[in-house]
Write a structure and sequence with these properties.
The structure is a homodimer. Chain A has about 375 residues and is an alpha+beta fold. Chain A folds into three domains: about 5-85, Rossmann fold (3-Layer(aba) Sandwich), CATH 3.40.50; about 115-180, 2-Layer Sandwich (Dna Ligase, domain 1), CATH 3.30.1490; about 185-375, D-amino Acid Aminotransferase, Chain A, domain 1 (2-Layer Sandwich), CATH 3.30.470. In chain A, about 30% of the residues lie in helices and about 30% in strands. In chain A, a hairpin with a 4-residue loop joins strand 14 (about 250-255) and strand 15. In chain A, helix 1 (about 10-25) packs across helix 10 (about 285-295) and helix 11 runs antiparallel to helix 12 (about 360-375). At the A-B interface, helix 1, helix 11, strand 17 and strand 18 of A face helix 1, helix 11, strand 17 and strand 18 of B. Chains A, B: Belongs to the PurK/PurT family. Chains A, B: Keywords: ATP-binding, Ligase, Nucleotide-binding, Purine biosynthesis. Chains A, B: Its EC number is 6.3.4.18. Chains A, B: One of its GO terms (molecular function) is phosphoribosylaminoimidazole carboxylase activity.
């Protein structure tokens, strides 16, 4: 029985693993980037996750290593594995969350539905793609970004010249990813969990409502989704999890197109914002499920306990104040809404917490959650 | 806004406050009796809760003091209050959980239904009570016990002579409590939460199944309870909470008699075993509710989220092994059952954890929970 889990990264995802860890008797240790982060209560070390010695020193004292984020470099991941340390998800799976071109190639091999895409290394290749796709496309850097952003809509062959120039300078470089602009009606997310010995379970498909490129609301299950769509998304999630060999939680971000198809947008290999509703709305929260999966324990039931659930992010928060200063008003107005905080200072656009609500009436819980959320503006 | 809660006592009730504290952003600090207790993750101090200096030093660094148990002496409670420290529940309320004669007297004043009782100081008074109640009765020490036990069924006037003798030696002494033997069909529990500013909310009445004097199973809501019974129990719980001025969670343990009455057996002024089902079965767990109440925050909704819920204690556990050694089998057999551990070593009769299940079908969740629980024998 292995019960010491080390989490690399001290953000809110690590923080939200603490509650189920305590209940299950899992000893959770966090390697935080700095003092005072969201997961500070469980932070047993502070250091740079890019430094092999720092990470190895942390990892040697736990039974399983997992992650708050996907940014641990491949060479650090492989150094742990070389020492016999159990790492979930492993380097071979995480590669597909770290490099968008690797992801697109692998999804193509798996036959997963996705936007038209190409790897492009110069403006001529980009022009060819644009010509074939109505003159507009999305260009993405495969890893990270060169100007703090890694996604750009272009409508000219020269629209990514600065990134092509940077590529040439970059030892990791190679190509940019270009994707068709998808005519989607909404975004969806399919979460699954997979344990090393192979068991996979799926959560119900959810709708993720975006506001300015940031997830603002999640509706579970996805409203109006047909049984066929739910089954298709679940099968896709399971096939991807197995195809890339992920362990732990996997979120498959999807576009639903005007003509009724689903296309894979992104992959996340960790608990994900689209699954925070499970804390108060599913038999097993994604954070408990992630712990169970990385410990290779049998996975928990994923059914929504009250029929429907919603999650609304608290973005920004009350500037210059604390979230707690709004508890009195929000709790008095909506006693059925659950408030989750990340221990972060409010800052414009920052995810500082979320609210959940669950119940039989999807409209009523959404309305209640919005009232509660709005007290934190 | 006061958000640092100090909990005196490091047992499982303190441990189970950690999860909601993390989510709400409440800083929880525990004064544990020793190292390595259930609530060790949040233990910031170790010391004797009967020592005024130890407790004051701990309490000065938090905003609100509350409890894992009811054993903190009145003089220690009053020393905190005298320093202006916010203590919930307060000394005046806790008195009724610490002294069973005080409890009976106050319940009589409040008109609460309870077994016939009397304060007796000698065998002659006990004989009078026995004569009036069919020759048998329950004798209880008002505070703690003289021989490790504080409850005894007697059928002779001399059946408590050793306790009367001890009373005479005891500075705290005074009288024993004698109660009629109630002809009850089952035991029930009514939980309410009350905040200092007065708001009170009630959970649904539950049935508590006892096995050899220890709670083994809790069924929520109490099976077969009429609307009238549910309302009567709720009104009684609210009246007692207000009548004794309790803050935080209150559990009213009840007998249901053969002739359909409910009688108060005991009071507990803290989260209680009869409410562990709320962790996975109610909109607000009793542990979150207790934190909200002692912080004087608006109280949360108490409705069962999935219709019904059950809680089964893990008593004893697998001797010589860990609870975790049984996770694989229990989780594989019952993926919908939630396992909670207390970080304690198995020992005969010891409460080392519990399992919860929630769902629409009361029979099915009880059966599933029993299967899971039995793996921990």
């Amino acid at each position: 029985m292995f019960m010491r889990v080390g989490v690399i990264g001290g953000g809110q995802l690590a923080r939200m693993m603490i509650a189920p860890a305590v209940e299950l008797g899992v000893e959770i240790r966090v390697l935080a980037e700095q003092e005072g982060m969201s997961a500070a209560l469980a932070a047993t070390a502070v250091g740079d996750y890019r430094d092999i010695d720092t990470v190895l020193a942390f990892a040697r004292d736990v039974d399983v290593v997992t992650f708050d984020h996907e940014h641990v470099p491949q060479e650090v991941l492989r150094a742990m594995t070389a020492e016999g340390i159990s790492v979930h998800p492993g380097a071979d799976a995480l590669r597909f969350a770290q490099d968008k071109l690797d992801m697109r190639r692998r999804l193509t091999e798996l036959g997963a539905p996705q936007p038209d895409w190409a790897a492009v290394t110069n403006s001529t290749e980009l022009a060819t793609f644009l010509d074939a796709h109505g003159g507009r496309a999305v260009v993405k850097t495969a890893r990270g970004g060169y100007d703090g952003k890694g996604v750009r809509v272009v409508d000219s062959a020269n629209g990514a010249d600065d990134w092509f120039a940077a590529l040439a300078e970059d030892a990791n470089g190679g190509a940019l990813l270009v994707e068709e602009l998808v005519d989607f009606t909404r975004e969806l997310a399919q979460q699954v969990a997979r344990r090393p010995s192979g068991q996979v379970v799926a959560y119900p498909l959810v709708e993720t409502v975006q506001d300015g490129g940031v997830c603002s609301e999640v509706l579970a299950p996805a409203p109006g989704a047909s049984a066929a769509l739910l089954a298709e998304a679940e099968a896709l999630g399971v096939a991807i999890a197995e195809g890339i060999g992920v362990t732990g939680m996997l979120a498959v971000e999807l576009f639903e197109t005007r003509d009724g198809r689903i296309l894979v947008n992104e992959l996340a290999m960790r608990p994900h914002n689209s699954g925070h509703w499970t804390q108060d709305g599913a038999a097993t929260s994604q954070f408990e499920q992630h712990l169970r999966a990385v410990l290779d324990l049998p996975l928990g039931a994923t059914n929504p306990t009250a029929g429907n659930a919603v999650m609304l992010n608290i973005l920004g928060g009350p500037l210059g104040q604390t979230l707690e200063s709004r508890f009195d008003a929000a709790m008095a107005a909506e006693p059925g809404v659950k408030i989750h905080t990340y221990g972060k200072e409010p800052r414009p656009g920052r995810k500082v917490g979320h609210v959940n609500a669950a119940g039989a009436d999807a409209g009523a819980i959404l309305a209640a959650a919005r009232v509660a959320r709005d007290f934190f503006a």
